[in-house]
């Protein structure tokens, strides 16, 4: 089971045009510059890198929010490159996203109940209203939000609670893959750990596969099985968590690792050196 | 020990439609000459409001300083007329903000912005100010400083912009620098560079720095002394070494344990339950009691004072010998 | 998962606000904006008059009384009488129904068509957007009133055609403003989130983007009613709208301009009412914008 590949990206590429003058040569930002990787069923692949390295674009390419320029994405053995709109809709059911900003990713004028029912309304037109309600309530429970809050609006919740709702929304269609784009970056440290624990528990319970995108190496190290390091659109290093963190090969990975602040006070560090 | 900045019983809050809402509840602390002090807290702890209070940068919000004293070199900043305060800002006390883009004027070149501040505060001629600005840019490690003087803010990267801001803020040799989350918007590699830069500059100029951050890692990196805030109160204060090696307040402990550490084999993080209390609806006793793993009955009833043990103090009933004894007797 | 539940047991307390109902919160804030509140009551009063006016007028608005022609304001005729001895106050009250129904239906029509065009234009972009916006540009090139006169000239005079004309020239402005709002909302993260859930474009457009543009539409609608009242009155003044004998405010002005030197009150009161009504709608719109437009919130 653990060796079965769920999704594979083969040499995917995405260049965004930059606006230039009429007569100048067209220029492009090489957001994702032909990268390949795969994620096995049930594992967590962490994707780290600094701003502008293309890690978020990679997540959106997998999910089809942005179309690839070239290369192919194979999900459950099927190439998504030539998939029709209808087929994409089916795949979306199986791979869901969790976004960074829990304040902006929930529709502000909808009640929590409706936000969570929305995916079911889209994909399961025949499901009875009662069944939908039950699913919503069960999942909210799992994500640590009481069902008394079903009729509240997103602005009535704190950041951590909103991210729980965002996770519940992503899980309601019972997906196999969750693409989490910086899911804890906007949260306070104490809340961040709650969400990370929640994601781990949910992964165990539902046998989820995660693509965990983050700029924070310690968070990635904590949650991932394997890690990919991105730098200016390229995947410069890829390996198991132990390989990357204990024995980095690429210079950039080494710089990145040495930049993480350690929880060792300055005075002590000076004594050590 | 000369106190550069001394904050005494500062109470700050916001004027809302339901009356005055206190955010900072009578905090007292000091920053010495040549010392980097970290002010740590999560959102809602009141750490940023504290920094704005010191700079008195409140005029366009509903913020209001209700009580207390802010002594800078022995003078109470709160009694200054606005005009005098304006002269002090930038010259005596400087501030660096989280987002470097918003602190720069997008339509003026870096050179023009730097020259103006320098000419205003140091009374130099335009030519002198220009040379002086280049010197300062070089000091913060900006290559080709002459060219950067002609650049507009958007032409620089985030890290470069933050360096420019630092150059600008230290250009008038302030004695106190307040840095409010100066590296939060930056990438880790850039963060490491900026922190190192701040440390170097502090050593060169011997100014005092008040570093406000949510990140204990950043604090460990450069601070000498640390103040931990929670719900508008100081809950712990100690030297960096004492704080990291022997945290006394359960909140500080919780913060340290909830951050993932590289190399640890733990599958789950020890997180702090619940969320920061809403200012409208504060718990009665210790403000941390509802989230505290070791809360006792008294914690929900009465708020503890800041209890000092040498230079290490914490606001927790566990440090009170009498309470501890009673608790032990109850448990026995 | 038991540890998960205990861990989050404390997390379930939502942030409490003083009053739960959104409308009440809205009203509490709105109440502080004095000009807007006064305008709101004035507009409310006008609408009530438009509905019950005919039953409360002191005199019959249409019945001539040749014994009291061109009387100046007095205790019995507060606003005086016109050249046929008709009570001006009664005519103004009766006219409220005409003015309001014309302007409200014209703006409603214009808002519906314009908003849909703007929504489509902003949401789908590309050539659809270019086409719709170029058509709007062409319409904008005409001064509004000239455009309306042209339309009425083609369709013939009468209140129904005034409604069509006023609606027609409010379409492009609604289209443009809704397009702007749509472009802004379209970039918001929750729209992307909906897309990633598999929601169709039409669903996203109507269910998620449209509600976000609604505040803008409401504000603009309110202000436009004021403009429409003025436009309708102008058309009637020019003899292209309401029958000259009807108590329409513009028509009243038009008929009485011959008496401007001899009986000033004939022009003054209808003019004053038009002025106050337009002002009230504009102030109300301003107040609503401060409340609803997130960019203007402090």
Automatic annotation (TrEMBL), chain A:
Top-rank lineage group of the source organism: Bacteria
One Pfam family of this chain: oligo_HPY
CDD domains membership: ABC_NikE_OppD_transporters (cd03257)
Keywords of the record: ATP-binding, Nucleotide-binding, Transport
InterPro entries found in the cross-reference section: AAA+_ATPase (IPR003593), ABC_transp_ATP-bind (IPR050319), ABC_transporter-like_ATP-bd (IPR003439), ABC_transporter-like_CS (IPR017871), Oligopep_ABC_C (IPR013563), P-loop_NTPase (IPR027417)
Signal peptide range in chain numbering: none
Stretches assigned to the ABC transporter domain: 7-257
Keyword check for Transit peptide: no
Assigned protein family: Belongs to the ABC transporter superfamily.
Protein name: ABC transporter domain-containing protein
Species: Neobacillus kokaensis
Automatic annotation (TrEMBL), chain B:
Recorded topology in the membrane: Peripheral membrane protein
Subcellular location(s) per record: Cell membrane
GO molecular function: ATP binding
Alphabetical UniProt keywords: ATP-binding, Cell membrane, Membrane, Nucleotide-binding, Transport
Pfam families: ABC_tran, oligo_HPY
Gene3D superfamilies (UniProt xref): P-loop containing nucleotide triphosphate hydrolases
Taxonomic superkingdom: Bacteria
Family annotation (SUPFAM superfamilies): P-loop containing nucleoside triphosphate hydrolases
SMART domains: AAA (SM00382)
Domain ABC transporter per the UniProt entry, residue ranges: 5-256
Assigned protein family: Belongs to the ABC transporter superfamily.
Name of the protein described by the UniProt record: Oligopeptide transport ATP-binding protein AppD
